[in-house]
């Protein structure tokens, strides 16, 4: 395992239900990984506004931020807090970079932004632009979601699903997942999804599909064997079907508490989020941790 992590976690909150669940997971990760938490709230609006003016709404937000800090401190977590003004996604990304955060934790859907399906626009922008991994926690009311929890003691990550494809980012995600599994005492499920043959009568494509299956079975076995060499519990599976649907179904059937998957590297201020990652984020009932290509 080549991955290392040892700095801090940035927890972004907008005081929504999803953010409350994100705090529970941030506390869980901070406690298990022995990391401090930087708590951030972004007031959406022009940065040049005079924030020294009397503003009852801002006073209430400060009180709520202090309450979030108190809850983390009560869990034995070292925590600092800050409140800034600007575009939320930009401020979260710039703060993570300035602090050298190893992980950003946030709810998948706040209560002020237009959703893209079930993933908030802020989350999508942060995942696309942040240099570090991002843990996105789904809405508490999502059916079958483990995020109905309110106390970090109730959170337990026992099994991690890692989708594997030909991208460097998926291998980076595997390294990260192995590192997490070691520290969280969790098992791994490595999965590759084969696209179904469009024409079963095409014997050449059918033969190529079987060859591809054999190659990927060997590759997954090799990766799982490597994980087991570090003392980790690891299993592998090849599924047929639509990639995102197979990942989501696999996470449910294997009772996975976390999905760790690769996504695009940041190339612009608002880079696109991969279609598979976006689809998984929209429908996932467990937290999803996205990892970039390190290039």
Write a concise synopsis of the structure shown.
The protein is α/β, with parallel strands linked by helices and 295 residues long. The chain has eight helices and twelve strands. Residues 112-118 and 265-271 have low confidence and may be disordered.
Shape: elongated
Assembly type: single chain
- Taken in chain order, the helices and strands follow as EHEHEHEEEHEEHEHEHEHE
Query: What value does the average pLDDT take?
Result: 85
Overall tally of domains = 2
Uncertain stretches of 5 or more adjacent residues: 112-118, 265-271
Beta content:
15-25%
| CATH level 4 superfamily of the largest domain | HUPs
Looking at CATH, which topology of the largest domain would you report?
A: Rossmann fold
Helix content: 40-55%
Lateral arrangement of strands in the main beta sheet: 3-2-1-4-7-12-11-8-9-10
The CATH architecture of the largest domain would be 3-Layer(aba) Sandwich
How many β-strands, per DSSP?
Answer: 12
If you had to describe this structure to a student in words, what would you say it looks like?
The protein is α/β, with parallel strands linked by helices. The protein has 2 domains: 149 residues, Rossmann fold, CATH 3.40.50.620; 140 residues, HUPs (Rossmann fold, 3-Layer(aba) Sandwich), CATH 3.40.50. Helices cover 41% and strands 22% of the residues. It is built from 8 helices and 12 strands. Strands 3-2-1-4-7-12-11-8-9-10 form a 10-stranded mixed sheet, with helices on both faces. A two-stranded antiparallel ribbon has the order 5-6. Strand 1, helix 1 and strand 2 form a beta-alpha-beta unit. Helix 3 runs parallel beside helix 4 and helix 7 packs parallel to helix 8.
